[in-house]
Amino acid sequence: MLGPTAYEHLVKLHAWPSGPLDHWSIETRACLLDARRAYTPSMRSRLDIPALHADALALLDGTSLAGEPPRPVRPDCPFTLDDLIHPGALPSIPTLLAKLASPERRP
Fold first, then answer.
1. Is the pLDDT confidence value at 98 over 50?
2. 3-state class (DSSP) for residue 91
3. Which tens digit of pLDDT belongs to each residue from 9-40?
4. Which of 5, 22, 46, 60 has its CA 20 to 30 Å from the CA of residue 77?
5. Spatial distance between the Cα atoms of 53 and 38, rounded to a whole number of angstroms
6. How far is 26 from 107, CA to CA, in rounded Å?
7. Secondary structure of residue 55 in the 3-state scheme
8. Reduced to 3 states, what is the DSSP secondary structure of residue 3?
9. d(Cα 53, Cα 78) in Å, to the nearest integer?
10. CB 42 within 8 A of CB 88
């Protein structure tokens, strides 16, 4: 099932571009792969993607990485379940990160 680890690492990738990007990318992809394998359609109604987003934002509140505060993450959840657990190829990490950008920071 899609747990908080994939989402938290995805948010960290966005929030701290100077952080351990390889580690967070691998963790995100591994967790999304596990979630895709475990997913069944009956789980759809129990997976609350906006709640995962809110929890990840709460973890960022008041934190820093090596003294660097996190970059802004959009307050609303930009993802659907299908964005994260796709039956085909894994979603692109850069595509997911672009969706996390705060609207005022988007290109």
1. yes
2. coil
3. 999 999 999 999 999 999 999 989 888 888 88
4. 22
5. 20
6. 26
7. helix
8. coil
9. 9
10. no
Cα-based distances in Å from 31 to 1, 13, 69? 9, 14, 25
Helix pair 93-100, 4-15: axis angle to 10 deg: 70
Task: Return the residue matching tokens 């929030």.
Answer: 15
Q: Rounded to whole angstroms, how far apart are CA atoms 36 and 38? A: 6
**Residues 6 or more apart whose Cβ sits within 8 Å of residue 61:** none
DSSP string, 27-54: HHHHHHHHHHHH--GGGGGG--HHHHHH
Q: What percent of the chain has pLDDT over 90?
A: 49
Distance from C-alpha of 62 to C-alpha of 84, rounded to nearest angstrom:
27
Structure tokens given for 14: 């966005």
Question: SS3 of 49, please?
Answer: helix
| Structural contact between residues 35 and 1, judged by C-beta atoms closer than 8 angstroms | yes
Please tell me the distance from the alpha carbon of residue 44 to that of residue 67, in angstroms, as a whole number.
39
What average pLDDT does this structure show over 102-107?
A: 56
